[in-house]
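Example 3.2
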Amino acid sequence: MTDAAYLLVHEDREYLLEPGEEFGTDLGVLEVPEDVEGGDTIETHLGTVFEVRELRGPDLFNHLERTGAPMMPRDVGLVMGHTGVASGDRVLDAGTGTGILAAYLGRAGADVTTYEVDAEFADVARSNMVTAGVADRVEVRTGDLAEELDALADERPFDVLTLDTGDAPAVVERADDLLVPGGHLAVYSPFVEGTREAVLAARDAGLDGIETLETIQRKMDFSDRGSRPSTAGVGHTGYLLFARAP
């Protein structure tokens, strides 16, 4: 990994800072040494002690610069679990956005090529990959993956294809050209209509093991009266399609 930013933590305070950075707070000025490491402690000029922590997955979700609604950790976990992405895998991704999924994949050791149609979003995602320490593993390309399929099909096939775009069905139709035999496809959509179109495209493409899931997660409430699922919403985020190349 490339040099990443670190979390500096004091009680309920968290600041994302890079080695060599100086940052002023009401608790004093933080000066981060160039050779800082996780587990170190740093005192402000007023004597407040901050603990230095290396970034973990949930920290990326909480602290990377956002350009829209990022993929939730619960969905990222399902993508990684169902595709089995591992170190050395080649991943083709579209719909980079903030880059949460791409960062997770890169931190798992995969080499990721990700497409983002919005040039400003792509610039933010590149910066986020530096922060996440995976700029050497994640290449953020500006463009529409659906328009690059012929050129990509001529490259060495990918192990995993992940899509979070409105035109995902058009890419799913070509999944067999893009993936190694047995390679995995994962498509995220916030709407059931888009998921249905992707499922039909996967069937037409002759993909195997087509499976569709709705992601729902509920928090639990514990009190003196008893324990039950939280009533603060159903916890729905979206739909995930999984399939494999024959």
